[in-house]
Amino acid sequence: xxxxxxxxxxxxxxxxxxxxxxxxxxxxxxxxxxxxxxxxxxxxxxxxxxxxxxxxxxxxxxxxxxxxxxxxxxxxxxxxxxxxxxxxxxxxxxxxxxxxxxxxxxxxxxxxxxxxxxxxxxxxxxxxxxxxxxxxxxxxxxxxxxxxxxxxxxxxxxxxxxxxxxxxxxxxxxxxxxxxxxxxxxxxxxxxxxxxxxxxxxxxxxxxxxxxxxxxxxxxxxxxxxxxxxxxxxxxxxxxxxxxxxxxxxxxxxxxxxxxxxxxxxxxxxxxxxxxxxxxxxxxxxxxxxxxxxxxxxxxxxxxxxxxxxxxxxxxxxxxxxxxxxxxxxxxxxxxxxxxxxxxxxxxxxxxxxxxxxxxxxxxxxxxxxxxxxxxxxxxxxxxxxxxxxxxxxxxxxxxxxxxxxxxxxxxxxxxxxxxxxxxxxxxxxxxxxxxxxxxxxxxxxxxxxxxxxxxxxxxxxxxxxxxxxxxxxxxxxxxxxxxxxxxxxxxxxxxxxxxxxxxxxxxxxxxxxxxxxxxxxxxxxxxxxxxxxxxxxxxxxxxxxxxxxxxxxxxxxxxxxxxxxxxxxxxxxxxxxxxxxxxxxxxxxxxxxxxxxxxxxxxxxxxxxxxxxxxxxxxxxxxxxxxxxxxxxxxxxxxxxxxxxxxxxxxxxxxxxxxxxxxxxxxxxxxxxxxxx
Length: 678
Description:
This protein is α/β, with parallel strands linked by helices.
């Protein structure tokens, strides 16, 4: 390709590509948003809906609800699977009306249009028809989230070349939108029905996740991306080896995050602007003076990308920045981090450009992305690098991190396939791992044994099976590395993938708020529990755009215990489930005191917050007295939206809850790798 004269490419080859966001959306306000005691509401309250329009909206909602009720009675599996494509319109308008989230008078008209569109889909589906499922161009669809069973929307651009019959598979680019404090479901769906976005490559399906509003696609927003992608794969023929992530501004931040955490899933990443970590960005962009606790600094590693930079060895990356954009800082930070691990980042820089994508740079970026798409993802690379700070992100190609010496301290596995059935593995802060290749993937000789050298230990491993699959696990002991997974005593709890904490991890899967049927022993505790539970319910909808499921303790059955993380509100006197499990928790709690290790706190004005494997079902969590742990102050800038509490904390209730904390945090820590108090 002949490149335009006025573009800049700074070659620092980083194997990663990022998702880009819309540059037109609003981002945070800067130093005015640095005052915890003066936090504006996000989203702001919208306009009052005139009585006549309100009645019209209510009538449209009622009519569409009647149609949805009829559809839900259908026994046709195909019809039931498509109900979310109708329900997204109803929920979008219902929430905007119920919570005053029409932010401009014209949005009321958009709401009426969405109700008409939803009713049209409902009428078609009642006849057994679903023409939107065979539509090219702009299409909006929905799915039911595992987290809270709410319907969530996503947008698609289906290329005109897509054939609804046949077996050919298509490239898919995920595009992460920018920050938009008014990005209600009404506005998101309306936008996805009129705009194709920044990039629409030929013969490519472009997926626009909603990400549950404006949280930089973290936590429930992260799961939304994965669920929307899975829904797209169920409905369209997606080539798993040609899926990329792209974004700009807040979407660029999301792209960096998805690139480093899930590097083996993408053929490329294309991040633009945004942020890639917390402290430096908040200093440069927000002019904020940070005073984090030691555990908050540890928890930054959940989403801060520089420490994960080596993972981009698996993901070709093309970064973009405007030359005079303050958010160029994100790629500069990642460029430095990559250089430290021996990788040079490809950084396209738009000349004399602020916070937007330069048109000549777009041409260069698209040429590189097209070239990478033709190569596709490498499923079984001969060299794999996996860096992790938490078992939440423990997978890279054929390498899985099973156990760490200490979570939130960097762990690393470097694995190389050598000739003659030999694998070399180097580890740091790793106590267990698995090497696994699916059927047809192993390049090794299935008639010969496999030698695995781990650090300085050489072990003989099983040879590949006849279907060319191969799987072997190792664990570290006082005597060194041993073949096979670690064996524990019956009932021994061990931190593992998706059961490793911190508290916020409980809200990345199915959860239920369990309200107390009784009254807490302390009136102070009882008042705080009721206030915090209400806060958690309100802010789950406000910030993660869902409806928290709430059940009283007496109504929880084995079904809920088996299927969901349980968030228990109250104390052992007020909540039947807390009473049932309290003696199986690592923190002691009775009506007089809370005991953590050798420390004791009066129970009349203290309360514990914690996450722990549910003693009634250790494959799920219990959480005591907490929703997601960042609060209103963090809503003002996406880089602040990180976990604020570790695995447990003791709260002094004499200090009122604030925009940052649920009270005064007098002690907090992580449990060890066996879920014990450190």
